[in-house]
Amino acid sequence: MASKANRTGKIAIIGCGILGHNMAIVFTSGGYQVALYDKDPSQIQTGLVAIQTKLQQYEADGCLRGDLSASDQFQLIQSYETLAECVQDAIYVQECVTEDLALKKSVFEEADRHVTQDVVMASSTANIFPTVLAENLQHKSRVIVAHPLNPPYFVPLIELVPSKWTDVSAMERARSLFQNLGQAPIVLKKEIRGFVICRIQHAVTAECFKLLRDDVIEAGDLDQVMPQGLGMRYAFIGQLETNYLNANGIKDFCERYSKDIYTLQESFGPPIALEGELIDKVQEQMEKAIPLDKLEDRRKWRDDRLSALARLKKQLE
Fold this sequence. Notes:
Strand content: 5-15%
Subunit structure: Homodimer.
CATH topology of the largest domain: Rossmann fold
Order of helices and strands: EHEHHEHEHEHEEHEHHHHHHH
Protein name: L-gulonate 3-dehydrogenase
Keywords: Cytoplasm, NAD, Oxidoreductase, Phosphoprotein
CATH superfamily of the largest domain: NAD(P)-binding Rossmann-like Domain
Domain 3-hydroxyacyl-CoA dehydrogenase C-terminal: 194-243
Subcellular location: Cytoplasm
Protein backbone atom coordinates (compact mmCIF):
# COMPACT_ATOMS: atom_id res chain seq x y z
CA MET A 1 0.00 0.00 0.00
CA ALA A 2 1.36 3.41 -0.88
CA SER A 3 1.60 5.97 1.90
CA LYS A 4 1.86 9.74 1.95
CA ALA A 5 5.08 11.28 3.19
CA ASN A 6 4.82 11.45 6.93
CA ARG A 7 4.55 14.81 8.65
CA THR A 8 6.02 13.98 12.04
CA GLY A 9 7.93 10.68 11.89
CA LYS A 10 7.51 6.96 11.50
CA ILE A 11 5.81 4.78 14.10
CA ALA A 12 6.24 1.00 13.86
CA ILE A 13 3.52 -1.30 15.18
CA ILE A 14 4.32 -4.99 15.53
CA GLY A 15 1.21 -7.14 15.78
CA CYS A 16 -1.98 -6.32 13.89
CA GLY A 17 -4.64 -7.70 16.19
CA ILE A 18 -7.32 -5.60 17.87
CA LEU A 19 -4.89 -3.56 19.94
CA GLY A 20 -2.45 -3.11 17.08
CA HIS A 21 -4.96 -1.62 14.67
CA ASN A 22 -6.54 0.45 17.45
CA MET A 23 -3.14 1.96 18.26
CA ALA A 24 -2.53 2.58 14.55
CA ILE A 25 -5.47 4.98 14.30
CA VAL A 26 -4.32 6.82 17.42
CA PHE A 27 -0.98 7.51 15.72
CA THR A 28 -2.43 8.43 12.32
CA SER A 29 -4.61 11.02 14.05
CA GLY A 30 -1.39 12.89 14.80
CA GLY A 31 -0.16 12.69 11.22
CA TYR A 32 2.43 9.98 11.82
CA GLN A 33 3.41 7.49 9.16
CA VAL A 34 2.45 4.11 10.62
CA ALA A 35 4.34 0.97 9.65
CA LEU A 36 2.54 -2.32 10.32
CA TYR A 37 4.00 -5.80 10.61
CA ASP A 38 2.57 -9.14 11.66
CA LYS A 39 4.10 -12.57 11.13
CA ASP A 40 0.67 -13.65 9.85
CA PRO A 41 -0.04 -11.76 6.58
CA SER A 42 -3.77 -12.39 6.93
CA GLN A 43 -3.73 -10.44 10.20
CA ILE A 44 -2.33 -7.44 8.36
CA GLN A 45 -5.09 -7.52 5.76
CA THR A 46 -7.76 -7.96 8.43
CA GLY A 47 -6.24 -5.10 10.39
CA LEU A 48 -6.16 -2.77 7.39
CA VAL A 49 -9.82 -3.44 6.65
CA ALA A 50 -10.70 -2.76 10.30
CA ILE A 51 -8.65 0.44 10.33
CA GLN A 52 -10.26 1.81 7.17
CA THR A 53 -13.73 0.90 8.40
CA LYS A 54 -13.18 2.59 11.76
CA LEU A 55 -11.71 5.74 10.27
CA GLN A 56 -14.63 6.09 7.87
CA GLN A 57 -17.14 5.42 10.65
CA TYR A 58 -15.52 7.92 13.00
CA GLU A 59 -15.52 10.54 10.25
CA ALA A 60 -19.22 9.89 9.56
CA ASP A 61 -19.98 10.09 13.29
CA GLY A 62 -18.08 13.35 13.69
CA CYS A 63 -15.54 11.95 16.14
CA LEU A 64 -12.50 11.55 13.86
CA ARG A 65 -9.42 12.92 15.61
CA GLY A 66 -6.76 15.09 14.01
CA ASP A 67 -6.87 17.54 11.12
CA LEU A 68 -6.61 15.01 8.29
CA SER A 69 -9.52 13.27 6.59
CA ALA A 70 -10.16 9.57 7.12
CA SER A 71 -8.79 8.89 3.64
CA ASP A 72 -5.63 10.89 4.28
CA GLN A 73 -5.06 9.17 7.61
CA PHE A 74 -5.47 5.75 6.04
CA GLN A 75 -2.90 6.67 3.39
CA LEU A 76 -0.34 7.22 6.16
CA ILE A 77 -0.37 3.48 6.87
CA GLN A 78 1.99 1.08 5.14
CA SER A 79 2.40 -2.64 5.76
CA TYR A 80 5.71 -4.48 5.56
CA GLU A 81 6.67 -8.07 4.87
CA THR A 82 9.51 -8.14 7.40
CA LEU A 83 9.94 -6.82 10.90
CA ALA A 84 13.30 -5.33 9.94
CA GLU A 85 11.72 -3.12 7.26
CA CYS A 86 8.91 -2.15 9.60
CA VAL A 87 11.14 -0.78 12.36
CA GLN A 88 13.84 0.73 10.13
CA ASP A 89 14.18 4.48 10.86
CA ALA A 90 11.19 4.42 13.24
CA ILE A 91 11.23 6.96 16.05
CA TYR A 92 8.95 4.78 18.16
CA VAL A 93 8.05 1.07 18.15
CA GLN A 94 4.86 -0.25 19.77
CA GLU A 95 4.83 -4.03 20.25
CA CYS A 96 1.25 -5.34 20.27
CA VAL A 97 1.65 -9.12 20.03
CA THR A 98 -0.13 -11.60 22.30
CA GLU A 99 0.79 -11.80 25.99
CA ASP A 100 3.47 -14.46 25.54
CA LEU A 101 6.87 -13.80 27.11
CA ALA A 102 8.92 -15.85 24.65
CA LEU A 103 7.18 -14.23 21.68
CA LYS A 104 7.59 -10.72 23.02
CA LYS A 105 11.27 -11.28 23.78
CA SER A 106 11.88 -12.60 20.28
CA VAL A 107 10.16 -9.54 18.79
CA PHE A 108 12.31 -7.16 20.83
CA GLU A 109 15.50 -9.06 20.07
CA GLU A 110 14.86 -8.90 16.33
CA ALA A 111 13.76 -5.26 16.41
CA ASP A 112 16.85 -4.39 18.44
CA ARG A 113 19.07 -5.37 15.51
CA HIS A 114 17.44 -2.89 13.13
CA VAL A 115 16.40 0.22 15.10
CA THR A 116 18.21 3.55 15.46
CA GLN A 117 20.08 4.54 18.62
CA ASP A 118 17.49 7.03 19.88
CA VAL A 119 14.35 4.98 19.19
CA VAL A 120 11.86 4.21 21.95
CA MET A 121 10.74 0.57 21.96
CA ALA A 122 7.55 -0.02 23.94
CA SER A 123 5.59 -3.12 24.84
CA SER A 124 1.83 -3.10 25.30
CA THR A 125 2.10 -5.78 27.98
CA ALA A 126 -0.10 -5.57 31.06
CA ASN A 127 2.17 -7.55 33.38
CA ILE A 128 5.63 -8.37 31.97
CA PHE A 129 8.41 -6.22 33.40
CA PRO A 130 10.30 -4.19 30.77
CA THR A 131 13.54 -5.23 32.48
CA VAL A 132 12.79 -8.83 31.47
CA LEU A 133 12.15 -7.79 27.87
CA ALA A 134 15.26 -5.60 27.67
CA GLU A 135 17.87 -7.72 29.45
CA ASN A 136 19.59 -9.08 26.31
CA LEU A 137 19.24 -6.01 24.11
CA GLN A 138 21.81 -3.56 22.81
CA HIS A 139 19.29 -0.72 23.15
CA LYS A 140 18.03 -1.74 26.60
CA SER A 141 18.05 1.88 27.77
CA ARG A 142 15.35 2.67 25.19
CA VAL A 143 12.86 -0.02 26.27
CA ILE A 144 9.68 0.79 28.22
CA VAL A 145 6.17 -0.52 28.70
CA ALA A 146 3.37 1.59 27.22
CA HIS A 147 0.21 -0.19 28.35
CA PRO A 148 -3.04 1.27 26.96
CA LEU A 149 -6.67 0.52 27.67
CA ASN A 150 -9.03 -0.59 24.91
CA PRO A 151 -10.25 1.18 22.88
CA PRO A 152 -7.40 3.72 23.21
CA TYR A 153 -9.06 6.05 20.70
CA PHE A 154 -11.73 6.86 23.29
CA VAL A 155 -10.04 5.76 26.54
CA PRO A 156 -6.89 7.88 26.52
CA LEU A 157 -5.05 6.57 29.59
CA ILE A 158 -1.74 4.83 28.92
CA GLU A 159 0.71 3.81 31.63
CA LEU A 160 4.43 4.18 30.94
CA VAL A 161 6.78 1.93 32.90
CA PRO A 162 10.60 2.08 32.87
CA SER A 163 12.98 -0.83 33.19
CA LYS A 164 15.93 -0.58 35.55
CA TRP A 165 18.02 0.54 32.55
CA THR A 166 15.60 2.99 30.88
CA ASP A 167 16.97 6.46 30.14
CA VAL A 168 14.93 9.37 31.43
CA SER A 169 14.95 10.75 27.88
CA ALA A 170 13.11 7.66 26.58
CA MET A 171 10.34 8.11 29.14
CA GLU A 172 10.12 11.83 28.42
CA ARG A 173 9.90 11.22 24.67
CA ALA A 174 7.13 8.65 25.10
CA ARG A 175 5.19 10.90 27.45
CA SER A 176 5.49 13.86 25.08
CA LEU A 177 4.46 11.71 22.12
CA PHE A 178 1.26 10.52 23.77
CA GLN A 179 0.40 13.92 25.22
CA ASN A 180 0.69 15.48 21.77
CA LEU A 181 -1.62 12.77 20.42
CA GLY A 182 -4.28 13.65 23.00
CA GLN A 183 -3.72 10.55 25.13
CA ALA A 184 -3.33 10.72 28.91
CA PRO A 185 0.02 9.14 29.84
CA ILE A 186 0.85 8.35 33.44
CA VAL A 187 4.44 7.61 34.44
CA LEU A 188 5.39 4.93 36.94
CA LYS A 189 8.64 5.46 38.84
CA LYS A 190 9.48 1.76 38.91
CA GLU A 191 8.24 -1.71 38.02
CA ILE A 192 5.60 -3.40 40.17
CA ARG A 193 3.59 -6.51 39.44
CA GLY A 194 0.47 -5.60 37.46
CA PHE A 195 1.73 -2.01 37.12
CA VAL A 196 -1.03 0.42 38.22
CA ILE A 197 -4.01 -0.18 35.94
CA CYS A 198 -4.24 -3.92 36.54
CA ARG A 199 -3.56 -3.64 40.28
CA ILE A 200 -6.59 -1.40 40.66
CA GLN A 201 -8.76 -3.17 38.09
CA HIS A 202 -8.02 -6.67 39.40
CA ALA A 203 -8.61 -5.58 43.00
CA VAL A 204 -12.12 -4.54 41.95
CA THR A 205 -12.60 -7.74 39.93
CA ALA A 206 -11.53 -9.93 42.85
CA GLU A 207 -13.93 -8.24 45.25
CA CYS A 208 -16.78 -8.57 42.75
CA PHE A 209 -16.23 -12.31 42.45
CA LYS A 210 -16.02 -12.66 46.24
CA LEU A 211 -19.38 -10.91 46.62
CA LEU A 212 -20.89 -13.28 44.03
CA ARG A 213 -19.24 -16.31 45.63
CA ASP A 214 -20.70 -15.38 49.00
CA ASP A 215 -24.15 -14.84 47.43
CA VAL A 216 -24.30 -11.23 48.58
CA ILE A 217 -25.70 -9.89 45.31
CA GLU A 218 -26.64 -10.92 41.77
CA ALA A 219 -24.35 -10.07 38.85
CA GLY A 220 -26.85 -7.68 37.25
CA ASP A 221 -27.15 -5.53 40.36
CA LEU A 222 -23.41 -5.69 41.00
CA ASP A 223 -22.69 -4.33 37.54
CA GLN A 224 -24.75 -1.22 38.36
CA VAL A 225 -22.26 -0.09 41.02
CA MET A 226 -19.84 1.44 38.52
CA PRO A 227 -22.01 2.92 35.71
CA GLN A 228 -24.75 4.21 38.03
CA GLY A 229 -22.58 5.00 41.04
CA LEU A 230 -18.83 5.13 41.48
CA GLY A 231 -18.11 5.41 37.77
CA MET A 232 -20.11 8.63 37.49
CA ARG A 233 -17.48 10.30 39.66
CA TYR A 234 -14.52 8.40 38.26
CA ALA A 235 -15.27 9.68 34.76
CA PHE A 236 -14.13 13.10 35.98
CA ILE A 237 -12.10 12.74 39.19
CA GLY A 238 -9.87 10.06 40.68
CA GLN A 239 -10.13 8.20 43.97
CA LEU A 240 -7.80 10.51 45.88
CA GLU A 241 -9.68 13.62 44.80
CA THR A 242 -12.96 11.86 45.63
CA ASN A 243 -11.69 11.34 49.17
CA TYR A 244 -10.33 14.88 49.28
CA LEU A 245 -13.68 16.41 48.30
CA ASN A 246 -15.74 14.10 50.54
CA ALA A 247 -14.08 15.69 53.55
CA ASN A 248 -12.03 18.79 54.27
CA GLY A 249 -8.91 17.39 52.68
CA ILE A 250 -7.06 14.09 53.02
CA LYS A 251 -6.11 14.55 56.67
CA ASP A 252 -9.73 15.17 57.63
CA PHE A 253 -10.87 12.21 55.50
CA CYS A 254 -8.42 9.88 57.22
CA GLU A 255 -9.34 11.16 60.67
CA ARG A 256 -12.99 10.38 59.90
CA TYR A 257 -12.75 7.12 57.99
CA SER A 258 -9.34 5.45 58.41
CA LYS A 259 -10.51 3.06 61.16
CA ASP A 260 -13.53 1.95 59.12
CA ILE A 261 -11.37 1.46 56.03
CA TYR A 262 -8.83 -0.57 57.99
CA THR A 263 -11.50 -2.76 59.58
CA LEU A 264 -13.13 -3.34 56.19
CA GLN A 265 -9.80 -4.38 54.69
CA GLU A 266 -9.49 -7.06 57.36
CA SER A 267 -12.66 -8.67 56.00
CA PHE A 268 -11.39 -8.93 52.42
CA GLY A 269 -9.83 -12.33 53.02
CA PRO A 270 -7.22 -14.15 50.91
CA PRO A 271 -7.00 -14.03 47.09
CA ILE A 272 -9.82 -15.77 45.24
CA ALA A 273 -9.29 -18.40 42.54
CA LEU A 274 -11.46 -17.65 39.52
CA GLU A 275 -12.45 -21.22 38.69
CA GLY A 276 -15.03 -23.95 39.18
CA GLU A 277 -18.72 -23.51 39.98
CA LEU A 278 -18.34 -19.81 40.72
CA ILE A 279 -17.29 -19.10 37.15
CA ASP A 280 -20.17 -21.17 35.76
CA LYS A 281 -22.56 -19.19 37.96
CA VAL A 282 -21.25 -15.81 36.82
CA GLN A 283 -21.16 -16.89 33.17
CA GLU A 284 -24.79 -17.98 33.34
CA GLN A 285 -25.91 -14.70 34.88
CA MET A 286 -23.96 -12.62 32.36
CA GLU A 287 -25.23 -14.60 29.37
CA LYS A 288 -28.81 -13.92 30.41
CA ALA A 289 -28.09 -10.21 30.10
CA ILE A 290 -25.78 -10.38 27.08
CA PRO A 291 -25.93 -13.57 24.96
CA LEU A 292 -22.58 -14.56 23.48
CA ASP A 293 -23.84 -14.03 19.94
CA LYS A 294 -24.57 -10.39 20.85
CA LEU A 295 -21.09 -9.54 22.12
CA GLU A 296 -20.06 -7.64 19.00
CA ASP A 297 -23.24 -5.55 19.16
CA ARG A 298 -22.56 -4.80 22.80
CA ARG A 299 -18.96 -3.82 22.06
CA LYS A 300 -20.24 -1.37 19.45
CA TRP A 301 -22.74 -0.04 22.00
CA ARG A 302 -19.88 0.40 24.49
CA ASP A 303 -17.61 2.17 22.02
CA ASP A 304 -20.38 4.53 20.91
CA ARG A 305 -20.91 5.62 24.50
CA LEU A 306 -17.21 5.94 25.20
CA SER A 307 -16.98 8.14 22.12
CA ALA A 308 -19.84 10.31 23.35
CA LEU A 309 -18.30 10.54 26.82
CA ALA A 310 -14.92 11.49 25.34
CA ARG A 311 -16.58 14.30 23.36
CA LEU A 312 -18.46 15.50 26.44
CA LYS A 313 -15.30 15.58 28.54
CA LYS A 314 -13.58 17.56 25.80
CA GLN A 315 -16.43 20.09 25.79
CA LEU A 316 -16.26 20.45 29.58
CA GLU A 317 -12.51 21.07 29.74
